Amino acid sequence: MFRRRGQDPRADTVHQGETSAPLKLQRAFPHADGRCELPLLHTAGGLVGGDRLSITAGLAPGSRALLTSVAAQKIYGSVGRCREAPAGRWARQDLHFSLEEGADLEWLPQELVLYADGLFEQHCRVNLAAGASFLGGEVVRLGRTAAGETLGSGRWRSALEIRRQRNGASEWVLVDRTELAGGCLEGEHGLAGAPVYGSLVWAAPDTLATTTLTSLLEGCRRDRAGLSGEMACGALEPGLVARYRGHSSQAARYWFTRIWARVRQVRNLADPDLPRVWPFQERPLG
């Protein structure tokens, strides 16, 4: 649970939580704007078929938090690895985020690497109160391509559901379901042979003026300069959605970091302090 210490908007956000193996909370870092940066460590190093992880976070009114991971998440091969279950078993991760009025959560884990014949599904549910903001991203590499590996018979599924409480009723902001496997890995409307997929979503706290949203999207598109891969972004009511497909998880991460900075600017917040556990980051943008 994250709570703001005091009523000042810049007051530090503190956290109280507990974990069970294999997850572990690392030391929290306070940011200049009072945001609490909390890295999560998966001590087992990766998931095998049948493993389950669950992460739940609640943010009290006005609190600000950045959740990230210490290292890339690895999902090991499952299909054809066990006589009892030759079709393989799914590894699963469930995320539940609940944000009260005026709360602000940035969920930006490091990339996920799905090994050949691995099966992984993730379900993320986000509940937003009035004035709450959620920024969430994911970058996935399908197969250890540096070793010449492909996904094979593996599959990756992701479901993101965002709801907002408004005038006493719960409204859908976004329902986004994606599955990567088989023919869609090569199809033009899928990954077109690219091994890296990324998605970034921002559910804004309030409706954005048309000029503000247009300027934000134009800036995000300019930020693609110098990066490999195909990148696109569009409007979410209210907020934005960005997608990446290509061969470089680093390029995806750089673009999403640039968008993150632009979202902060639109909200008149300080530029992001990049997590200390992140490797290979760009120099600050000029």
Give the SSE string.
EEEEEEEEEEEEEEEEHEEH
Domains, number: 1
Q: What is the first-to-last residue Cα distance? A: 35 Å
Shape summary:
globular
Percent helix, as a range, is 10-25%
Radius of gyration: 19 Å
The count of strands amounts to 18
- Main sheet attributes: strand count, strand direction, barrel closure: 11 strands, mixed
- What is the assembly state of the chains in this entry? single chain
Q: Mean of residue pLDDT?
A: 92
Stretches with pLDDT under 50, minimum 5 residues: none
Q: Helix count, per DSSP?
A: 2
**Structural class of the helices, strands and pairings?**
mainly beta
Percent of residues in beta strands?
35-45%
In short:
This protein is mainly beta. The protein has helices at residues 210-222, 249-266, and strands at 2-4, 13-15, 23-25, 29-30, 36-42, 52-59, 64-69, 73-75, 91-99, 104-107, 112-114, 119-128, 133-142, 155-166, 169-180, 196-203, 230-236, 239-246.
Task: Walk me through what this model shows.
The chain is mainly beta and 286 residues long. It has one domain (22-266). It has two helices and 18 strands. It has helices at residues 210-222, 249-266; strands at 2-4, 13-15, 23-25, 29-30, 36-42, 52-59, 64-69, 73-75, 91-99, 104-107, 112-114, 119-128, 133-142, 155-166, 169-180, 196-203, 230-236, 239-246. The strands form three sheets. Strands 3, 4, 5, 7, 8, 10, 11, 13, 16, 17 and 18 form an eleven-stranded mixed sheet that branches. Strands 6-9-12-14-15 form a five-stranded mixed sheet, with no helix packed on it. Helix 1 (210-222) packs antiparallel against helix 2. The longest helix has 18 residues, at 249-266. The chain starts with a strand and ends in a 20-residue tail after the last helix. The mean pLDDT is 92.
